[in-house]
Amino acid sequence: MELYLFTQSAFVARSCQLAVRNTGGLNLHVIHEKCLSTILSLIPRVDVLLLDGDFLDRTDLESVLSSAGGLQAHSCTVFLLTDADSLDDRAKACAGRAKCLDVFFLENLPEILGNGNPEYGKARPRLERLKNPALIPGRGVAADPVSRYRKESFIENVKTIARTRADVLLVGESGAGKSWLAEKIYDWSGRQGNFLSESLANIPPNLFESELFGTVSGAYTDAVSKMGLLEAAGEGTLFLDEIGELPLHLQSKLFSALDRRTFRRVGSLKELPFSGRIIFATNMDLEEAVRERRFREELWGRISMVTVRVPPLRERPGDIPALAVRFAQDEGKSLSASALEKLSSYQYPGNIRELKHVVYRSCLLSPNDTLGADEIRFARAL
After folding, report:
1. Is the dihedral of CA 264, 266, 270, 274 positive or negative?
2. Which of 130, 100, 104, 95 is nearest to 112 (CA)?
3. I need a surface site. Which of 146, 182, 222, 244 has the fewest CB within 10 A?
4. For residue 204, what are the contacts with CB-CB under 8 A and spacing of at least 6?
5. How do residues 52-86 score in pLDDT, each as one tens digit?
């Protein structure tokens, strides 16, 4: 079930994340941009809208609740999050069109969504179907085992996030396509400025700080004035891969920079503004890293406000033919139907990266312009 939360409060976002963090089938997307048109455009496509009561004024809220019958027509459920003092007044204002919840007591949110609250009994069958793809009419498990990750739905959700100002965390297995998706988020955002990409795993520990924040001349022996990644990105987008590799002592500095949207070059006292977007990526379980005190909880809470899970290739086999064809074209070759069928039958534990290597190796070792099934080589050894 896809939940979209609209709020500018870090507390509200964190409370909702904690409420659904251990509940399977609930995917929370947090959007910090106050844009009524974005909310209205989501109504036909989402299951649940969570609206912070301090996020929308009464006029905008009324527009959402009476949007051309959209809520009932599309079975979109709205929850208004507010404090206890305003709960009764807000409930009257919503007149049964939305359920008001105390923002300080959201622990029962998964239960409300999953157990069919009487007030939302009509919506429950649709919500249950969305949690279990096998219950969608005409879509048995054998016919479409990965319907949650249909390309159209996944990409449209990411495009919606791209158009906001929010920083984004991409999580997924190595080789699943996080770097590619980061570039697409930049393209879809319409942002001006540069797109910079850096894997933190490639930066020597003693250079982390100067690479991120820059340095001023004389900051240390042989130091020269140098622009860091944050400054170089400007109003564009900075993609930081392998964020889990950032040393603990720098995690607090990065958190402060994100929180204030300012930073200092190494050796300088001058605060420099940062107005760009940062896209983080990791294949590490950051929650486990937080529990083991290898990653700071405050930084994890800040960068995970908007999290996108990039599904592994085995969960979206429909993408394999198009990717394989593109990789073959890069080598000046094409693939026969039998070759594509053979490629699509493999699980690819190394994800897109492994598929690319398989196609490259097969093209390299084949004298033909069009490869058949017998020329697809999964094994590395000849």
Report:
1. negative
2. 100
3. 222
4. none
5. 877 777 777 777 777 645 555 556 788 888 766 56
